[in-house]
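[User] Could I get a sequence and structure tokens?

[Assistant]
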Amino acid sequence: MGARTSWSGYSSLIVFALPLLIAFQASANSDACRLPDQDVVLIETVQPPYPYLAHLFCIEGHAKFEFTIRADGTVADVEPIDSEPVGAFEGTGDVLRFWQFEPRCIDGKAVERNARQTIEFKLSSLPSGHCPDQLPEEVLDMRIELTALYQQIQGRIRDPNGNLKPLAVESMLDEPFASIERAHRRYLNERLEFERQWRVLSLRSITLALEPANLANGRHLEQLPPALEYLAEQRTELYWKWPDIQHALSRELIELGESTELDDTVRSMLIDPHAQALAEGFEPNHAMISLEQSLVSEYRALIDFLQNHRHEWEVKENALEFADQQLSRQYRQQRDAINAIHHAWDRKFFMPERVYWSGI
């Protein structure tokens, strides 16, 4: 690529570096140590996808993260500490939560340590045909403008309590770029409304309703089955609504490209990717639908179990106590099944860009 994207090679998406940052902290968990003294050993990774926005606008770069490797080898407290360009790649650090290590051991005891990880992104790692070797200045300006808009929206979406008010549709750019930007602004406003509905219809509300404190006297049980069915139906409709939003943006941009004189480079970057996506068609994320259907099924089974055995359990000290060990074991197994699906969801669909559509 050009001089503006002169970062180092992608190296299979991961460049691993773990300098020691703080003193070791002893842990009571010594079972994780297979050797008396060893440094952390990476045993499982999750590869970050190239962020959709960065790929769409032909952006290369890197992000560096600081995090804690716990005494059990899991990762916590992931924080971005450096990125280039700012805002484009910080969200990829979510994958570090799913990495697994053999922990550092001192005198046979596992200890926590802080670490740093750099993730680099190079367009040469992707089979992309829409990114030219040299970008004209007007395209660079447009890319900066759109990137800032998308980052603003992604920041709101990542914040569960964020402000989801729509963007203004006006543009400060000259034509034809103003029309292209307005199309993206309309799309982003639809995305914000979609996200608002997504949050309102969250299945996490069922998890909360099933907490022991909310099951006292069973007052919520009879309300849960119809509430669960309503949420499941509405979220399925949202899955199928998202492709229509994507389709509308691509259709509008293609029509602009057909009715406006555009430089070939501008067309290759800002119009052609949408034409290709429209030709391939838009589908909801079927993997997410399938996983959510499994979750709904497990919720139904747990609610039925609690209703059928209503007189064989009670809430004591914010926990459910059952009449016998078999019922208690069945309850734990069903809760474990629900937690496993939530964990699989977090592992597969942890980035906002991947919530809505397949193939990214």
